[in-house]
Amino acid sequence: GSIIDSSGTHQSIESDKTMSTESDRMTPRLESVEERDSIWPRQNSLSLKEWDIPYDDLNLGTMIGKGRFGTVYRGNWHGDVAVKILKEDFLDDEHAIEAFKLEVAIFKNTRHENLVLFMGACMKPPRLAIVTSMCKGNTLYTHVHLRRDKFNLNKTTLIAQQISQGMGYLHRRGIVHKDLKSKNIFLENEKVIITDFGLFSVTKLVYDSNLGLGIPYGWLCYMAPELIRNLKPYRPTNEDLQFTKASDTYAFGTIWYELLCGEFPFKSQPPESVIWQVGRGMKQSLSNLQASRDVKDILMMCWTFNADDRPDFNKLFTTLERLPKKRLARSPSHPIQLSRSAES
Ligand code: ADP
Ligand code: MG
Questions:
Q1: Is the pLDDT of residue 34 over 80?
Q2: Which of 62, 64, 185, 215 to mutate for ligand 1's pocket (most ligand atoms within 8 Å of CB)?
Q3: Model ipTM?
Q4: Which of 25, 228, 264, 275 has its CA 20 to 30 A from that of 74?
């Protein structure tokens, strides 16, 4: 695999050739977010103001749900939007507010078909909120784990390819997602929309001085071995949890597994056991997975113990593209719908 440095500018020649999407072509080649912002800091702070939405301009509707960052509300701001209001416990922490502003500055520079549309942010404490387009449809988590939908391999591959394109774009811009999981990926009709990228550093994992570190359900299985090995029995700092492009690739592997198997890896095993196994380089067994070698190889590549050996998303995209496509047994003269409508 090829390694991308932290500025996201060094890609292998091969992967440059193989993934030339519309959005990629429109992205200036030798510019990462960090570079640009350090060259034109003033321009950056000015354009941040441009994205400022006064809190009172937002019409908040019903609550959609709660996550680790805060609460998401349905809202109206020139149309339907999702408003993510940050948890109050960040507000006493100046460092967290600075981190939030930095992340908004990064967020505002993302434009890709497969990424949720950033519309603006409320940046005056005590009101810190991020406004994005409202995703329609269900998350992959809902499809796979709640509705128990089964996607055929063609559809699974198409979904994974779109995730790879969105992620390839983010990495190209020097943005690490840090929280790639099936709950953060929506499926609108056939289209994948990735949400919540780059926002992890403002979160704090639940920590209780009596109970220790609380690990949210379904979180560990996305964590690469190098992250797992750094978990401590206290609230982790950003230094402890060094998310990288390679740790995003690991998380993608888990999503590929969920799509194929309909469940999480290490399902119903206690956290200590998962931590012990993954930390030592053990992987979920694939003996029960009925799939071709190529399909399983993608899992093994993404879950590679050594972070540097994991493929980047350009490589993943081409690997997925090369998977043999099953021809659908459907011809114009014998549409599948015919037999269905005959039944009903
Ligand atoms: P999590 O990602 O862990 O579910 P979040 O705080 O990100 O937690 O989301 C809380 C709820 O809001 C979830 O049900 C999520 O699907 C929903 N949600 C988040 N962002 C959007 C969005 N842009 N459009 C629609 N629903 C969203
Ligand atoms: Mg989310």
A1: no
A2: 64
A3: 0.99
A4: 264
